[in-house]
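Researcher: Go.
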Amino acid sequence: MSLVRFLTASEARATDGVKWSLHGPEVLAAWVAVMDVETAEPIRAAVADAAQRSVTGYPDARLHGTADAIVAWHEQRHGVAYDRALVRFAPHVTNAIGQALAVFTTPGDRLILSTPVYHPFFEVADLAGLEQVRVSMLATDTGYRMDLDRLEAAAADGGVILLCNPHNPTGAVAGRDELEGVAAIARRHGNPVVSDEIHAPLRTPGTGFVAFSSVAPDLAERTVTVASASKSFNLPGLRLGWLVAGTPELATRVDALPHLSTYGYSSVGPPATRAALTEGGPWLDELRTHLVARRDLLGRLLDDVLPGARWVFPDATYLAWIDVGSYGLDDPAAAFLAAGVALSPGTQFGEEGTGFVRLNFGCHPETLIEVVERMGRAVG
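Model: Structure:
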């Protein structure tokens, strides 16, 4: 019996999420990073139990072994051992990044980004008053890599290096050699490193993952790792993320941040996250096989319907980074929206996204087929 069930478009629309409500009832939603999938049974049971126990007050994520579940998850899934005493909580990963930046920076400092990249990174930099230093990634026939030469040139003038690994929107998974290169740069120039590893559990079966902290234990005093179950288990509305400080001194500095800048996770976030991390493994493993099938289906559909599109199969995530520049559309996302498909505009992720769109293929196959067919109609 299958553990994973994808929702039809009508079922997904009934979930009351912004993904399907924003653009109206006639538009198919394939933009924001939320999958059209039924919530895993252990998580539903945990949320129901929380409601039965009236878990609706101000939450405390430190209760009931949430940090233990997080540490065990990282060790089992990613092969990295963390100290539970160094785990801190946030309402979401972007907030966790903000906490790390508040510890490492003051307004006017620099934040170094490998672009195109998850666009809230730009906003969190602006909120912290940081100068954004954008370093374009290298596009190869097999995927995207960080440009370590340009990254070093940027890092030599100081600043926090913010990693997105696995990478959103390209789906690239950084290899050990890339991460060792980043670590060497940080050693030479004294840069703190914040590593966003939220998409790591969604890597394609057979694709390995290396946590930045594991290649640079000597940089622990200026390393923070951030993550959440929200992407892999489709829980962004339940609002719980975490950060792992590299040292007790860093954790103490996080604890000293203003309360309103760190608090705000939901009361059901901790029990749902514990259920996901301790009981949701089989569901996630099955989901990953479904996502490979969706990715392959998308490839066939693009070959048939949009043969001028160019993309590289992602090694992680359910997001496709697609170059449609050959079709000469002034604003590709707007053209597709006019045809009834909502996609994320590539320029949202940086100027490197000109001519690109990001497509969420974490959906029912019938939805995906109709999405690409409508895209085809948009280009004639």
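Model: The CA atoms of residues 37 and 153 lie 43 Å apart.
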